[in-house]
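One example given next:
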Amino acid sequence: ADLAVAGVVGFADGQPLENTALVRRVLEYLQPLGKPVALWCCDRQLKSNGVMREGPDSLRFGLPGNPATSETSAIAALIELVAATETPAHIMRVSTARSVELIASAKSQGLPITASTTWMHVLLDTESLKSYNPNLNLDPPLGNPSDLLALRQAVRTGIVDAIAIDHAPYTYEEKTVAFAEAPPGAIGLELALPLLWQHLVETGEFSALQLWQALSSRPAECLKQNLSAIAPGQKAELTLFDPQQSWKVDRQNLRTLSQNTPWLGQQLTGRVVKIWIP
């Protein structure tokens, strides 16, 4: 309550809340405050030791599978709790086609739910794991091809409101291990916009406006912040992006101190030139 009065825009926890009774209490306590809570839906027991999305590719690559139900069962439970409490909730790290269906159904019923997926989940699927690159070990794992298509469509239509970066830096030593032993996560702050632009906008699958809304104004709306209300003369954050600038992803060109990305050493087209933060 003190944080809400102080002006925070919402609440979140970076780890799944396994105890549904605790989730219920969180939603009940937050309900009168009118602030959204962002939750990552994952049943760790169903996930078990899975390191990639369960399916034909997990069998082919010989990696332990993480079933889609580890995510969808947790989302279904959260939706029921939101229906009971009417507390605004944001579902983070959506990664499966079935999750999209559940969220679409909840929104059609008028429940106060928003959702986001990560930039790598709309770029890559399980086919990419044939390289066994430990920087592709993510949590949740990359989806099957059908999941990728469903997520892209959901972002275009607004069922999934936002694309998150989910920047997770690790040291060289932490990631230079076998795929299943690597900590999940990859960097993305300097890479997401160039790669999304290259693979979604340049191909015509997304318009520039659709991509920018998913990265900018719609995330703000999930937190009940209205960017369209910015008036002339008012301070605002600005990003200058050059879609034609070519650059190499290496230690010299990355501002982050970590290099845990599958695009390390590759040449990209498109780069953020400058940002202004008031």
